[in-house]
Amino acid sequence: QVQLVESGGGLVQAGASLTLSCIPSGDTLSSFPVGWFRQAPGKERELVACINLFNGDTVYADSVKGRFTISRDDAKNSLYLHMNGLKFEDTAVYYCAAAPHIEPRRHMYTRESEYDLWGQGTQVTVSS
């Protein structure tokens, strides 16, 4: 069974940068849609960014546009979220998500309900 393992979270000061990584065990990341979500205390889980497998198109939450970048390294079978200019309001648990069963795979998927494989989450805390 495929599992997603995130890493790279931590405690940083406002303005700092972090890169989150997601590596699947038991399958190839490049074969299905993937994205990053986050959940802040007391709030619902929300999309941060997702990437189209076939053309590399990306979708970002308005709150992170220009600061965060989602990328995929197929050679390393990894998904990344590069976060620059972190703000206090970016504090959340960040989840890597995948949709191994969804079709058609060449579409962009932005809704939480479309993803059925989730990592355990990695905490990002930004101090103001």
Secondary structure blueprint with pairings:
Elements: E1 3-7, E2 10-13, E3 18-25, E4 34-39, E5 46-51, E6 58-60, E7 68-73, E8 78-83, E9 92-98, E10 117-118, E11 122-127
Parallel strand pairs: 2-11
Antiparallel strand pairs: 1-3, 3-8, 4-5, 4-9, 5-6, 7-8, 9-10, 9-11
Please report the total strand number as a whole number.
11
Spatial shape: globular
What are the low-pLDDT stretches, counting only 5+ consecutive residues below 50? none
Q: Tell me the radius of gyration.
A: 14 Å
Q: What kind of sheet is the major sheet?
A: 7 strands, mixed
**What is the count of helical runs?**
0
Strand content: over 45%
- What's the oligomerization state? single chain
- Please report the distance between the alpha carbons of the first and last residues: 40 Å
Give structural notes.
By secondary structure, this protein is mainly β. Helix content is 0%, strand content 46%. The protein contains no helices and eleven strands. The chain has strands spanning 3-7, 10-13, 18-25, 34-39, 46-51, 58-60, 68-73, 78-83, 92-98, 117-118, 122-127. The strands form two sheets. Strands 2, 4, 5, 6, 9, 10 and 11 form a seven-stranded mixed sheet that branches. It has a four-stranded antiparallel sheet with strand order 1-3-8-7, with no helix packed on it. It is globular. The mean pLDDT is 93.
